[in-house]
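FAQ: What does the model actually see?

It sees only this:
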Amino acid sequence: MTSPQTFTQNPERAADEIQSEIKAKGGSLEAVHDALEAALNSYEASAGLPPESLLPEEARQRFLGRRLKKGASFLQEYSKTIGENLCKPGSALRRACEAGAGTTGSGLVFVVLTALSLPLAAVGVAAAIAGAIAALGIDAFCRCTESKDVSPKNA
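And it is asked to produce this:
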């Protein structure tokens, strides 16, 4: 598992580790959930803001009081935003993948960070998402966000 320090000190390496872990587990998104949980804890500690602050307003309201694991519930609530900003034809993410940057998680970290308008303090969140995209491929990742089936068994 990727260490919490890796998310902030070397997010590109964290994304590549997440990518490898997903592939090693046959496409399970459990590694993404675990990575997101660690990244969200790091964000909360460094930025002093709750993870919900990264969510759009409508998702933020649904996230409050949830009993699911923080990483899994965050990804579930954030999937609409991810799909809208990353999966559209012609999006920055699609262009980056088509240009070859999508073959590794490290090549996608800052594309994801920028496309989702995440603050730099949330670079670990971008690393987790980038690792998932690189491991699954953009089409499979986008299908997950469209169906909102981002549970650990899915991929």
